[in-house]
Amino acid sequence: MTRIYLDHNATTPMHPEVVQDMLVCFETKYGNPSSVHTDGRDARKLLEAARSQVSGLLSTDPAEVIFTGSATEANNTVIAHMHETSGKDMAFISSTIEHPSVDEPLASVAKSGREVIKVGVDRNGLVNLDTLETALRGRVALLSLVWANNETGVIQSVAEISRLCSEYGVLLHLDATQAAGKIPINLRALNVEFVSISAHKFNGPKGAGALIVASPKSLTPWIQGGPQEARRRGGTENIAGIVGMGRAAEVASRELDARARKYGELRDQLWLGIKESIPSVERNGSCRSCLPNTLNVEFKRTPGDVILQALDLEGISVSAGAACSSGSVAPSHVLSAMGLTSDEARSSLRFSVGQGNDTKDIVRTLAVLKSVVSRIRETNLS
Ligand SMILES: Cc1ncc(COP(=O)(O)O)c(C=O)c1O
Description:
By secondary structure, the protein is an alpha/beta fold. The chain has helices at about 15-25, 40-60, 70-85, 100-110, 130-135, 160-170, 230, 240-275, 305-315, 335, 340-345, 360-380; strands at about 5, 65-70, 90-95, 115-120, 140-145, 170-175, 195-200, 210-215, 280-285, 295-300, 315, 350. The chain is built from 12 helices and 12 strands. Helix 2 runs parallel beside helix 8 (about 240-275), helix 8 crosses helix 12 and helix 9 crosses helix 12 (about 360-380). It starts with a strand and ends with a helix. Pyridoxal-5'-phosphate binds near residues 70, 71, 150, 175 and 177. Pyridoxal-5'-phosphate (PLP) binds near residues 150 and 198.
């Protein structure tokens, strides 16, 4: 039985062109980009080409791209840098629906005595702009916000938020890990200081990420001890990973519209099918401002983790909440922040489509879901 993978927000398979380019690195382009000989210079050329490909995906300057090992590292770097370099009386602002790689460093900031303000979201998962504006009026070091949420796919109004940050002179960090490669991004049109992305979310390899910094010269390195990345991120570069990330960025730029159309159709087919065939279901999060590939659904009075396991046995991979919290009994903090009760949050599943999915996958998933949900509901009643 071929498995059906509907968990592309957790991670994605690599695009064949990415694999091809990485194989060349493993086999022949093993030079250290810091070396001055030909092998080293060849590796450096590949590194800089990848930087241009990544900057192309985001419409920004290659000089602003700093390669990291993950988006988690990029997020930690931003928060540690701002913690160290901003006035001790200045607050940090974030939201109640952030990824743990922002939440946990911010918890450390709060522990040190700094004020951390978490702005709430409405039932659609959108940040309350009035509350945000009030918070921005204070003395603020940084606003750190997830561009598109990993669990619901809800996209924040970043143009308006960036405008507010300009008005109040606050630096903006956007965690674009889920947005990059899925929706158009033009950083030149926004006033944003820091952006985090991760290759494995857009058909690149794991272990390669990037932090985009508008004023890169002033960044305090999170990893010290090397001249790499112009002294802003120490450690010999993961050339194969970075080359793979560059190719994935280039392919994503090329295929952005076609992917959005195809994934959007599959996602809508899935949601319409669920609505038609399974009673008592509700979609979580805004339908208007949402990543094209993501669907989060509450199956009322049916535990999400039980559905997940039943689907898994039938060869279908989905997620109950964020990948890193799957398996834990705590309800999703994102869905709770949107006002769902613990039971509602625990009855929710995330489906995220991507490379390799087709209509047949959706048809089979719908058939399996229908029987699995009704079986679980019957068992729960008896
Ligand atoms: C919104 C968001 N931020 C950050 C991360 C962390 O990315 P990485 O796996 O590259 O550390 C994830 C991964 O799920 C994510 O969805």
